[in-house]
């Protein structure tokens, strides 16, 4: 089956609809499928539920979909870098389901593994547990969390072959691998597209059986979410009476 598509718009053709759930890989701005996000924006679909660790920043990543009011609900663990997100939430225009980061990761992993629910101690006795079943196991209380399984997963990989096998690089190996397993259809954008056999089997993080469509995105801007630098130290004064050496 041909998996490689010429561009992000073609890769998403026939997959997008209003009110669907989309998983979107990435951590901050690292490993986000930004070209696929741009294609979602161009499609005009709305009422989306987005599962993502965070919501990008204003005008970048998922921030683009927030600007165009295409997102109705976010299932996330951190959204503190996006002013438009905060504005819409405080105005009652956007629904948020907050998750502890580890819980969100496990909900996605469980969905991909066919596990409908699991119990965790994280969040017991807090707002996270409100409205959820709490059980006691061996004298400890645990809250039940549901697995997540989306209509569509959008992921970014450093390298992929034409059969859909993917390899991620450094921090981009965050939510991408688990999201690739937890949707009806997974579409991957890859920086380096190679022929089958050119990725060593032990270096494959997502087997091709999970990936339905691939788009080659060789040139992309890699942004820094928060640039933090140390002040340059002042030059030490020259020694008194010293001459040139």
From TrEMBL:
Gene3D superfamilies: Glutaconate Coenzyme A-transferase. GO terms for molecular function: CoA-transferase activity. Residues 225-234 have a biased composition (Basic and acidic residues). Pfam families: CoA_trans. SMART domains: CoA_trans (SM00882). Keywords: Transferase. InterPro entries: 3-oxoacid_CoA-transf_A, CoA_trans_fam_I, NagB/RpiA_transferase-like. SUPFAM superfamilies: NagB/RpiA/CoA transferase-like (SSF100950). Residues 225-245 are annotated as: Disordered. It comes from the Bacteria. PANTHER family: ACETATE COA-TRANSFERASE SUBUNIT ALPHA, KETOACID-COENZYME A TRANSFERASE. NCBIfam families: pcaI_scoA_fam. This is Succinyl-CoA--3-ketoacid-CoA transferase. It comes from Methylobacterium radiodurans.
């Amino acid at each position: 089956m041909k998996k490689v598509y010429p561009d992000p718009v073609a890769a998403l053709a026939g997959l997008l609809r209003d009110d669907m759930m989309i998983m979107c890989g990435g951590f901050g701005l690292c490993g986000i499928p930004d070209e696929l996000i741009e294609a979602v924006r161009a499609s005009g679909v709305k009422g989306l539920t987005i599962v993502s660790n965070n919501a990008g920043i204003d005008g970048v990543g998922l921030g683009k979909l927030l600007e165009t009011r295409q997102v109705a609900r976010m299932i996330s663990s951190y959204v503190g870098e996006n002013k438009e997100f905060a504005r819409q939430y405080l105005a009652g225009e956007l629904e948020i389901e907050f998750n502890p980061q580890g819980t969100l990761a496990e909900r996605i992993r469980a969905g991909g593994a066919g596990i409908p629910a699991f119990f965790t101690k994280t969040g017991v006795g807090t707002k996270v547990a409100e409205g959820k079943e709490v059980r006691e196991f061996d004298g400890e209380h645990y809250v039940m969390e549901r697995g997540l399984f989306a209509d569509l997963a959008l992921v970014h990989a450093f390298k992929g072959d034409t059969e859909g096998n993917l390899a991620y690089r450094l921090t981009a190996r965050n939510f991408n691998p688990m999201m690739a397993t937890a949707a009806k259809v997974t579409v991957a954008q890859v920086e380096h597209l190679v022929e089958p056999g050119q990725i060593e089997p032990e270096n494959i993080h997502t087997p091709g059986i999970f990936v339905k469509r691939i788009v080659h995105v060789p040139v992309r801007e890699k942004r820094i979410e928060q640039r933090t630098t140390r002040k340059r130290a002042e030059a030490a004064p020259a020694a008194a009476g010293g001459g040139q050496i």
